[in-house]
Write a structure and sequence with these properties.
By secondary structure, the protein is mostly beta strands. The protein is built from one helix and ten strands, in the order E-H-E-E-E-E-E-E-E-E-E.
């Protein structure tokens, strides 16, 4: 009898794509996609849009949904949006300003069935 391969424990840490050039369906549904400028001026407001399910629609139903999206610049917390099961789409739009270069924009999102997923986008302040 062949041994079953255990599925990775999606709740054991922060999930990222194994191969960004060859995403699985699970990864496409859960990877946060960040839209923001590559470079901003210090202190100037700019819009950041984060979409979960942009690459492949994520179910948003009572049994399976995105609970929250958090936005950071490097390790500095910027914003959070919480979602309910059926009433919302997992999209965060927020205007932020950065006084100095803190590192990449980082996003964490949590799916109630598939754990926390992370994405980042380089951004330069200057």
């Amino acid at each position: 009898m062949a041994e079953k391969t255990a599925a990775p424990d999606l709740f054991a840490g922060i999930n990222r794509p194994k191969d960004p050039n060859n995403l699985t369906e699970l990864e496409k549904k859960h990877i946060p996609v960040i839209t923001a400028p590559d470079k901003v001026k210090p202190g100037e407001c700019f819009e950041v849009v984060v979409e979960v399910g942009k690459l492949l629609a994520h179910p948003n139903e009572n049994a399976h949904f995105i609970e929250f999206i958090e936005l950071y610049a490097g390790h500095v917390y910027l914003a959070r949006m919480d979602f309910t099961a059926c009433a919302t789409c997992p999209v965060m739009k927020v205007c932020v300003s950065l006084g100095k270069d803190l590192g990449p924009l980082r996003v964490f999102e949590r799916c109630n069935l598939h754990g926390v997923w992370e994405a980042d986008k380089p951004i330069t302040v200057g």
